[in-house]
């Protein structure tokens, strides 16, 4: 119910409603591993680099970034692509204090995830 109120509060202005729509699209693409649509949406909708970083840094109600969401959904390549656009997201923690690497370790996939994420950061 709290998330519902946050959504209603966020939709008070047209600009905020557009940002919420974009966030919801990107959230869906991150959970489904749709890398092409995620990247296309970022490229086509957000021409301002600051707006792009602001949206990529946005948090879910659980304080997860898109990197957390992609990794927890098993889409490490998408997480790596997101990190290429904003590297500091690798160190961001959610409400449980977990980074994306913590989530991968809990899932038992730390070697593959670490190699993929860190290789793409260079």
UniProtKB/TrEMBL annotation:
InterPro entries with a match to the protein in the record: Ankyrin_rpt, Ankyrin_rpt-contain_sf
Keyword set, alphabetical order: ANK repeat
Highest taxon listed in the record's lineage: Eukaryota
PROSITE patterns: ANK_REP_REGION, ANK_REPEAT
One Pfam family from the record: Ank_2
ANK repeat start and end residues: 96-122
This protein's name: Uncharacterized protein
UniProt source species: Prunus yedoensis var. nudiflora
